[in-house]
Design brief:
The structure holds two protein chains of two kinds.
Chain A: E1 3-4, E2 10-11, H1 20-46, E3 50-55, E4 60-62, E5 68-69, E6 74-78, E7 92-93, E8 98-108, E9 118-125, E10 131-138, E11 145-155, E12 160-167, E13 173-184
Antiparallel strand pairs in A: 1-2, 3-6, 3-13, 4-13, 5-12, 7-12, 8-11, 8-13, 9-10, 9-12
Chain B: E1 3-4, E2 11-12, H1 21-42, E3 48-52, E4 59-61, E5 67-68, E6 73-77, E7 97-107, E8 115-122, E9 125-133, E10 143-153, E11 160-167, E12 173-175, E13 178-186
Antiparallel strand pairs in B: 1-2, 3-6, 3-13, 4-12, 5-11, 7-10, 7-13, 8-9, 8-11
Classes of the chains: A mainly beta, B mainly beta.
Amino acid sequence: MPQNTPRGYTYPLYTDPMNFPAQIQDLATDIDTDMQSLVNRITAARNYAACHIVASGINQAVAANTDVACTYASELYDNTGMVNLGVSNTTVTFTQTGLYLATARATFLPNGNATVGARQLAFVTTSTLGTVGRKSITGDQVVATANNLTVLFWAAAGDTMQVIQRQNSGASLNTSTRTLQVAKLGEL
Amino acid sequence: MVAFTPNRAYPYSQPSDSADVPAALQALAEAVDADMQAVIDSVTTRPFAKVSSQSPTKQLFPSDVVTECTFDYVDVDTAGISNLSNYPTRLTPSSAGFWVVWGMVEVSSTAGSRTKDVFLRANGVDISRYEQHAVDPTGSAPNRMSLGAMSFMNGTTDYFTMTFTPDQAVTDHKIGNKQMACFRVTAT
């Protein structure tokens, strides 16, 4: 009765019938399957979900004191279908469970209002963590303000995320360029 | 006629082959050995690099001029990503994939600038921006502006840079402490 090593490689015993071609094929095939599984695992560990979407110079209105989800117009990279701008131009859907790094930027154009206030970005997810990052900086009456936020957080497959912009200048203003990059951290 | 396994192409004898057990085992062992070595060689550490400016001579950033930050010291580089002798402003990822880039400039509180504008760029095109407005309190410590971004890089010619622009400045800036780093998140 042939035996197996702990990894499942088959070898004959002295009591087994002598059939070298069949026995070496068994061994070669077992190693082949095991090695291919290892190679597949290495490849998968290097190739986790990531996306990069932008709206470059496309104005979006942000009313005062109102949460407004950033809109995007172009996919520069998306290796697992995290984004479908035709269905939603605001939402990223996590396709894999794991630890994610996300970076976002929005350029708030000035509206000339004497009340300047703040320009805020937040990462809002549907995961149990909810809002995973928020950053608010001082705006300006006459020149643009670019806010930038980087967060590290856990998300499950099926969760979604939006970047929420908000400002309290007392009047509406536009954001012009918005970028969002999301990547699950690979193991290798 | 020797046959081969389906995935890794390991050779094994068939009943029609001559009964040369040592030769057949040697061929299989050598094929597995070479394949295992190739797989081990493919498992490299995550490529990353960090560069900074250590020179006592601070870099000049003229007011209202977009200027690339220069670096003169390699803190770490595991994959030939930096080449500061020829490209003192660049990090050039040496393998294709989705990469994180991070940058920091330390802006003196006495420089007299009201608006400070930092970009991270891939091939000269901005991928993130941090523009803030503040008149620093007298005597405050230098402000370190840091930001992150991600982008797919082709592993050969694509490169990261960081620019700094003092807008609305009453004087040009001189900055000593600048840092930029990058690492690969996913391989494809």
